Amino acid sequence: MSSSQLYEAPEIGLTGWSRWIWRQLTSMRTALILLLLLAAASVPGSIYPQRSADPNGVALYFDEDPVLAETLDFFQLFDVYTSIWFSAIYILLFTSLVGCVLPRTKIHFEALKAQPVQTPTNLSRMPVFESSTAAQGIDPVEKGMQILQKQRYRVIRRGDSISAEKGYLRETGNLVFHFSLVGVLIAIGIGGGLSFSGQRVLAEGDTFVNNLAGFDSLSPGTFFNPDNLAPISVTLDKFEVDYDFANETNIGAPLDFRATVTVRTPEDQVGKTALVRVNDPLDATGASVYLTGHGYAPQVTIRDANGDISYSGATVFLPQDSNMTSIGIIKVPDNLPEQIGIVAFFYPSVIELSSGAYTSIFPGVIEPLVSLNVYTGDLGLDSGIPLNVYALDTDRLTQVAGRGTNNSAVEVKLGETADLPNGLGTVTFDGVKRFASLDIAYNPGQFWVLIFSLLSLGAVTVSLVTPRRRVWVKATSSGFEVAALSKRDDPKLEEVVRELTQGIRNG
User: Fold this and answer.
1) Rounded CA gap, 285 and 442, in Å?
2) What CATH number did the domain enclosing 141 receive?
3) What is the DSSP letter of 317?
4) Residues 479, 131 contacting (CB under 8 angstroms)
5) Looking at the DSSP assignment, which residues form a beta bridge with residue 410?
């Protein structure tokens, strides 16, 4: 037989490779690496807008840079937390933790049931060792056993020596910590699957009904069931903002935002009044209602050439600066003789600049003005394609009033009426309402994430502060010996041995 045949390695086979892969996956080192990878994989979710939380931000990304957006979307960077690669890391981390912790738990339970180890023959070889003489008539082994039992050591006597152990709570805390991490992962997974986050903009007097049609946008979880939506309605009664007038350098800065709402249920049609503030959400049958934005909704009435009302109501205008200069889109498909599209500007406290342009100098309503750029043509509402209510597609429209036309923008003050160009009718500025942007979020896993997080924090604290020690006391012909061993560095180990020796010696 040749030497090459003599030392040829055996075939590992599929079973051997599977066992090796499983051992690598369930090692603590792999679990830590996967935990770091999961943290790193979460970073893109805070850099790029996510479809689940900011669909408008994603749409804006595609409008501004379509090529880059397509590339980012290919790598699922707009859906980080539901992406294939994030889910793979998540599942591998979960598997690694479970496969790592379960065997350790079995070993720990066996260690808890086992008796303390045998007393070493030569205690002087231990890291901390002392020998002494005992007082006459004192059994050093019995006395040491009494002292250690009072200190809650597990003690067993074997002949002329005792063996004591303490600190199993350290490994218990370590295991509870890892099980808590598994609990956090499960709570996040199940909670995210059952969760939903919806947005709705309400002008004062408007009502939100908690069903699919009631949301402006909705981001449901994987296991979301619309039948589970609680039958409630929320009416925005009033929105108030407190401004700073005391500080001269900060005049006009908002100090507080308050949305007064009425919440109704099938059992309570009268409803209950509640306040929603920033960082102070309203809890409505499990879902939390957050206040995320605000602005103005000017009330405008448009009459066609025949004097009939073709549009009337409050329109949400989006704020553009801190003084609430706002832009709104008004679409009038039923106007005669032709459809009208309007890009309107609202100035709550208007002044005219030296350039002739308008701006607002204060966010509150003092001297409001609405300026309208008017377009006519096909609004595209009959195309069957969903359109953004906050944008006006001017490709099929002709501008008839505003910059670049023969007609200046239509300007109308509060309570006044102005004529639209080309005999299109009139526009009346009836009033000003405020609007509030509400985010309705539900995640049943949040409570359990908190519980498991607190449990993991407490467990790791216990694990870090609990020492793991073994102590032996052995009777000799001249007295007794005391020795101790710690699983890790223990600065108090010498003190433990010294105090135990002194306690035995003094009887």
Assistant:
1) 10
2) 3.30.310.50
3) B
4) yes
5) 372
Residue-wise pLDDT tens digits, 55-102: 767 877 888 888 998 999 899 998 888 889 988 998 898 888 888 888
Residue 150, token pair as written in the block: 């009072």
- 82 lies in the same domain as 32: yes
Per-residue exposure over 175-212, b if at least 16 CB sit within 10 Å of its own CB, e if not: bbbbbbbbbbbebbbbbbebbbbbbbbbbbebebbbee
| Residue 419 sits in the same domain as residue 471 | no
Each residue's pLDDT tens digit, 95-124:
888 888 888 889 889 888 889 999 999 999
User: Residues 77, 131: one domain?
Assistant: no
CB distance 416 to 430 below 8 Å: no
The encoded tokens of residue 312 equal: 């009337």
Phi/psi for 500 (5° steps) reads -65, -45
Considering only CA atoms, which of 292, 366, 354 is closest in space to residue 323? 366
Closest by CA to 33, choosing from 89, 80, 88, 99, is 89
Is the model's pLDDT at 247 over the cut of 60? yes
> For residue 5, is pLDDT > 70?
no
Residues 280 and 368 in one domain: yes
Q: Domain span at residue 83?
A: 15-108
Separation in Å, CA 299 to CA 315, 325, 379, 433? 6, 16, 21, 7
Q: Contact 408/399 with Cβ under 8 angstroms?
A: no
Question: Does the pLDDT value for residue 488 go beyond 90?
Answer: no
| Average of per-residue pLDDT across 373-389 | 79
